[in-house]
């Protein structure tokens, strides 16, 4: 469905759509006000173009195009080490360490902690142009509307100060008064310094994401206001009765009594905003008498006149709005009034979706049907412009991509998007969690009587007034992760706004606190990796299985839990992405990281690092999302994130880049297999088992579709395209809404393979209409060897190996390994983790968020890279990147630093370091030493205590030794004993 872009949910004009006479887009004069002297020197009283006479430099004034920003038009200053950024910097090493010295020089600097604007300006800027007031506006108040300003706007007309606005979330509207027809001088001062301390990392203001830009974007227009008008229209759907209560405030700036009527009607919208035949309602006409109201002046609104509540029946066949069928209506209200002999007209149109959002036990419901929120953060990251788009097309693209990946919600982290985002989400049936522009932490706080407390309530009122009718607006939080007396203050905030506008769910904040007043709790528990857990997190500490869920959490809560910012799994930088940055924001951080990689001699591996780390990232997201889906009654999750977060030290956590584009290792189709309305789930005790073992699989279906389904459920074990075994789990089974459908268990038979194999277990769900949902899991099956296990004995014990070479010796002692190899032996040197002196933490998962922002939280690496065709892996099937069969070998191990080895030695199992360090790391390498040959590995080849760990680790060791016993073992690079000793640093 495509909604007409002119649909206006905000009243204020007596005509709908843009009056071309009031369009203010185009060329404006500008002047920078670095010292804040413009008001004192009365810049508003004369054309800014004369500013040069006051001593302003050429770069300080001129002409530019609005809507737009200073930065995108090359106005401002080059970035320097002393640039006064808005945003916290945790890792200060950039300012002190020698390795960053080349990037701190003069005006040609590169910062590693976020995208860098081409120009930077923080301060006041003045914009000015002449405006024309038409003859037919004579005697009427003129409203100046500026859709999005960053941050505070102050307005003068013909040298007279009108007022100031400071909303970060909604349009600034200034009542210019009754202007005489003709030409007037309009001056706007915009200041992007901190007006209210909302927190330096709030995505509404921070350089971490959109950037601290200065300017005006979106609509810039004048309206003539009617003396009696619809000041506010709110639509409150009643799903059960298929009607909507239309609440209308009528305002008047005219003395005396006005009489009139309001007519209200609705029509169903189809493609391109056309009406659906037969779907309109008859107009309801309601008379009123309006006394003189209060003029709110600079807000451009009238209030106090009278209020009407009108029940509009939509009919028994009225369509409901949700993620599956986003049926939209246009609601139109027309006012005709008289004061004395004068007639006044006002018309407002707004979007309407017949939907109700509520709570059903521990889950959210939409129109009475339980749903599971599958969300991701949208952090206001728009590299080309450095500010969010206000056009419908840009937001339609973002919403489409989000839904293609199986999401049904976007959380706007500490910011409120422009109107176009709501319209695009309305059309597509995507839910939005909107937040105030506040992250009151890192020095800021709420509930302590600071200005931010009042500002939060002002912004909430403005957001609900401006966007409250949008059906996509299903959830609201005050902002993100507060500090201060947050619980007490936010309890009152939730109560206040829930009572005033109950059309959505409210939660105190994203992150915390979990208070009784919340409709839902959006908290950091439960999730697979919590902040600070490091190698003790579940995926790093517990052997691979697919049974983990959060049932204990659900049973302990009385309301839905939405997991806060799950995932945060990093991937290596995609240096090919750099060419995409053709606008305001530059990836100078990527340039630093590319230099580090080149200096380490690994520049040619960048693409391989991206692919291998990306595949590990994807399987971690898969397990984390499935853990939530496996939890019966769970509320949902917010990913951090589907796209990269380029700030906070550079957090490359997305399977998509900041442009919402694929990085090449995971498609939307692949992601939506495990993240969507209907997802088959397999509960496995382990992912590795012996070939002579049967394996039990419990089957579960998470189904949050539009209605229950009847389906056939089948399983299969595949190797590539070949199906080795398959069967039926259930035929014609009814699957209701929810994730409580359990089927099976299914017994996977023994003896499927007689050689080591990586197989794929697939579950396929086919409903009566032929619709299919499928999901799959990699598993590994290893047969016990027919001969005694191929092994290397301790030095001095006769080896047991078929074929050449004549001897393979195993040791964990460095000097013994060097001596044995030097005298012509083939040696496996197994390096114990506690023998390695570096502090590089190697886990199964990749880096969490990033090591700079987390102060070096473990793990410090991004997975493994290896050649799956290498004969080393003949008995240990692998695909070139970390997968679950590597868990045992990685658990308890540590990477080796290889910078003391020859530069042409590439490890057979390479560990991918974080991009901040780009160290040469390895977990297994082969070389010639003296007259012998050696494999050195720091992998854990004993595998710990569990049977599946020992099985996978032993299989890897068997494969290594089989390779070493073969003629294929022929390393080319020679090392010395001294070089060997360096790996123990």
From TrEMBL:
Top-rank taxon, per record: Bacteria
Region (Disordered): 1-22
Gene3D superfamilies: Galactose-binding domain-like (2.60.120.260), Glycosidases (3.20.20.80)
SUPFAM superfamilies found in the cross-reference section: (Trans)glycosidases, Galactose-binding domain-like
InterPro entries named in the record: Galactose-bd-like_sf, GH, GH2_Domain-Containing
PANTHER family: BETA-GALACTOSIDASE (PTHR42732), BETA-MANNOSIDASE (PTHR42732:SF1)
Protein name according to UniProt: Glycoside hydrolase
Species of origin: Brachybacterium sacelli
């Amino acid at each position: 469905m495509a909604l007409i872009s002119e649909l206006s949910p905000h009243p204020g004009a007596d005509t709908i759509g843009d009056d071309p006479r009031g369009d203010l887009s185009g060329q404006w004069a500008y002047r920078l006000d670095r010292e804040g002297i413009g008001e004192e020197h009365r810049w508003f009283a004369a054309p800014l173009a004369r500013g040069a006479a006051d001593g302003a430099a050429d770069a300080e004034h001129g002409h530019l195009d609005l809507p737009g920003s200073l930065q995108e038009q090359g106005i401002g200053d080059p970035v320097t080490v002393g640039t006064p950024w808005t945003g916290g910097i945790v890792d200060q090493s950039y300012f002190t360490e020698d390795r960053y010295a080349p990037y701190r020089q003069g005006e040609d600097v590169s910062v590693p902690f976020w995208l860098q604007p081409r120009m930077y300006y923080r301060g006041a800027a003045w914009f000015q142009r002449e405006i024309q007031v038409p003859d037919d506006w004579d005697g009427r108040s003129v409203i100046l509307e500026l859709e999005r300003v960053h941050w505070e706007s102050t307005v003068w007309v013909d040298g007279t100060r009108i007022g100031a606005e400071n909303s970060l979330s909604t349009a600034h509207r200034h009542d210019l008064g009754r202007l005489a027809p003709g030409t007037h001088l309009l001056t706007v001062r915009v200041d992007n310094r901190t007006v209210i301390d909302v927190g330096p990392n709030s995505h509404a203001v921070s350089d971490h994401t959109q950037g601290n830009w200065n300017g005006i974007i979106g609509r810039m227009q004048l309206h003539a206001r009617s003396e009696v008008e619809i000041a506010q229209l709110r639509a409150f759907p009643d799903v059960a009765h298929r009607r909507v209560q239309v609440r209308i405030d009528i305002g008047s700036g005219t003395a005396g009594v006005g009489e009139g009527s309001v007519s209200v009607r609705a029509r169903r919208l189809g493609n391109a905003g056309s009406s659906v035949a037969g779907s309109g309602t008859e107009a309801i006409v309601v008379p009123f008498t309006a006394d003189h109201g209060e003029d709110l002046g600079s807000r451009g609104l009238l209030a106090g006149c009278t209020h009407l509540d009108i029940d509009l029946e939509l009919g028994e066949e009225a369509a409901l709005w949700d993620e599956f069928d986003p049926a939209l209506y246009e609601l139109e209200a027309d006012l005709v009034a008289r004061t004395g002999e004068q007639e006044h007209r006002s018309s407002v149109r707004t979007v309407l979706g017949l939907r109700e959002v509520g709570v059903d036990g521990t889950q959210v419901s939409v129109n009475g049907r339980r749903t599971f929120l599958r969300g991701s953060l949208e952090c206001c990251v728009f590299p080309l412009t450095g500010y969010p788009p206000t056009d419908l097309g840009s937001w339609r693209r973002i919403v489409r991509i989000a839904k293609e990946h199986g999401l049904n919600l976007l959380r706007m982290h500490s910011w409120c998007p422009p109107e176009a985002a709501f319209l695009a989400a309305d059309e597509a049936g995507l839910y939005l969690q909107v937040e105030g522009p506040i992250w009151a932490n890192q020095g800021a706080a709420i509930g302590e009587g600071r200005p931010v407390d009042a500002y939060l309530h002002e912004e909430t009122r403005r957001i609900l007034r401006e966007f409250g009718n949008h059906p996509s607006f299903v959830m609201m939080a005050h902002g993100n992760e507060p500090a201060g007396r947050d619980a007490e203050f936010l309890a009152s905030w939730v109560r206040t706004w829930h009572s005033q506008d109950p059309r959505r769910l409210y939660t105190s904040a994203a992150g915390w606190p979990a208070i009784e007043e919340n409709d839902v709790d959006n908290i950091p528990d439960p999730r697979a990796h919590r902040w600070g857990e490091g190698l003790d997190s579940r995926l790093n500490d517990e052997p691979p299985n697919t049974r983990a869920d959060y049932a204990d959490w659900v049973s302990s809560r009385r309301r839905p839990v939405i997991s806060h910012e799950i995932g945060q799994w990093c991937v290596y930088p995609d240096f090919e992405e750099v060419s995409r940055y053709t606008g305001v924001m530059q990836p100078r951080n990527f340039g630093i990281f590319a230099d580090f990689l080149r200096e380490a001699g690994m520049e040619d591996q960048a693409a391989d690092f991206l692919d291998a780390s990306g595949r590990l990232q994807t399987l971690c997201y898969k397990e984390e999302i499935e853990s939530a889906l496996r939890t019966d009654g769970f509320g949902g999750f917010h990913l951090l994130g589907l796209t990269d977060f380029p700030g906070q030290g550079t957090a490359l956590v997305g399977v998509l880049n900041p442009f919402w584009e694929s990085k090449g290792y995971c498609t939307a189709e692949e992601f939506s297999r495990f993240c969507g309305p209907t997802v088959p789930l397999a509960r496995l005790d382990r992912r590795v088992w012996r070939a002579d073992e049967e394996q039990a699989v419990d089957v579960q279906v998470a189904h949050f579709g539009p209605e229950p389904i009847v389906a056939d459920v089948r399983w299969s074990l595949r190797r590539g395209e070949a199906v080795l075994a398959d069967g039926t789990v259930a035929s014609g089974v009814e699957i209701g809404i929810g994730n409580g459908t359990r089927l099976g268990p299914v017994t996977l038979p023994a003896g499927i393979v007689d050689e080591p194999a990586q197989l794929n277990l697939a579950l396929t769900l086919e409903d009566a209409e032929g619709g299919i949902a499928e999901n799959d899991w990699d598993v590994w099956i290893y047969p016990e060897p027919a001969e005694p296990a191929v092994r290397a004995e301790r030095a001095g014990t006769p080896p047991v190996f078929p074929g050449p070479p004549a001897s393979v010796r195993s040791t964990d002692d460095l000097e013994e390994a060097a001596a044995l190899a030097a005298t012509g032996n083939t040696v496996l040197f197994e390096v114990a983790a506690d023998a390695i002196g570096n502090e590089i933490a190697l886990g199964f998962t990749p880096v969490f968020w990033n090591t700079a922002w987390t102060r070096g939280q473990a793990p410090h690496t991004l997975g493994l890279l290896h050649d799956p065709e290498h004969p080393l892996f003949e008995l240990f099937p692998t695909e070139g990147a970390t997968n679950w069969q590597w868990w045992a070998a990685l658990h308890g191990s540590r990477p080796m630093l290889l910078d003391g080895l020859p530069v042409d030695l590439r490890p057979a199992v390479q560990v991918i370091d974080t991009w901040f360090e780009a160290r040469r790391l390895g977990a297994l390498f082969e070389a010639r030493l003296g007259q012998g040959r050696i494999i050195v590995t720091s992998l854990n080849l004993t595998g710990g205590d569990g049977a599946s760990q020992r099985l996978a680790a032993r299989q890897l060791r068997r494969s290594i030794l089989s390779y070493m016993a073969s003629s294929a073992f022929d390393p080319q690079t020679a090392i010395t004993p001294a070089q060997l000793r360096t790996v123990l640093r």
